[in-house]
Amino acid sequence: MSEAQLPLRRELEGLTPYGAPQLDVQIRLNVNENPYSPSEETASDIAAAVRDAALGLNRYPDRDFPALRQALASYVHQESQVLIRPENIWAANGSNEVMLHLFQAYGGPTHKALAFTPAYSMYPEYARDTCTEFVVVPRMSDFRVDLDMAKEAIVEHKPALVLITSPNNPTGTAMPLSDIREITQMARGNGPQKSAGDHTDAVVIVDEAYAEFRRAGTPSAMVLLEEYPNMVVSRTMSKAFGMAGLRLGYMAASQQIIDNLMVVRLPYHLSAVTQAAALAALAHTEELRAQVAGLAKQRDQLVVDLRAMGLEAIDSDANFVMFGTFADRSRVWKDLLDRGVLIREVGPPGWLRVSIGTVEETAAFLAALREVLANERA
Ligand SMILES: *Cc1c(COP(=O)(O)O)cnc(C)c1O
User: Fold this and answer.
1) Which residue ranges in the chain fall short of pLDDT 50?
2) Does residue 241 have its Cβ closer than 6 Å to ligand 1?
């Protein structure tokens, strides 16, 4: 059979699928998962909830999943002490899909999305897939965002979407709440043009995938939602919550924004199985708190340990640490892999990123890294 001449969109020609390598090694510290499995009790409750849901699988699921939105609102209240109404919550299959919905609603030809790089590597893909122009403002050498540059770029580009990753991936750095506020304020009236002399408000997405790991004194942007109808705060059950395999991301925003997203979502996008499993998992938040605190403590210690080895390590508000710098980071990455430790080659040249694992995994990573560096220096 001869090959077909497929009408692939020009901009997709020659591209390969995105994704971190999924390798079968013992210690996997490359995609910022929570290293602990759910408890037996949580697993049993999820199984029972899914069994009940299975009896109704001949029917389409509830399109608007009010029970899950209520449970997510309660979780946010407990976690961030901010009251969000269930109607102001939206969810999808991972925060990746939540953000794609935002691009589908607000991006598109003639519209731009703006991000502060280095940032999450999926953003340019949402932009590409929705034919949205992607523009960036590079972060400073300490990976903070220069507030004046950010505001100037918003005024210049009139973006439909501004993406703030806080805590940021891959740097681990959080943006001060006052900066988020100023950027969101500047975004008002600086979105794409509506009619002559009349501009829309840019939508500011604060991607808080790692919110639960933030250090004391770093507030969540959830506290700003009441003031800004053009702001979205996105969260996920994939990281701190330890449910990456579930695929459940969510966000909070004004009713106007939620209404717009409901127009672009596919019908019944959240399966009955996902809804049931997520609801059951959300009834077990108490076991998370100690886990998250333990991981955050290990993270702070890891920064100290890496620096004691003569390396640079960036203070982190997430469950990973970016460290370096290496003349040949690919070799360090590979040498670690040869010792059974998989981390991530991501971020600015010279840097590597390692997720916080169990105490044993983190110790094994450090031991392997010591060996690798000793060999390099020998
Ligand atoms: C991991 C991550 C996500 C979460 O993706 P899910 O689709 O919810 O698994 C979102 N944003 C950032 C910055 C991330 O690192």
Assistant:
1) none
2) no
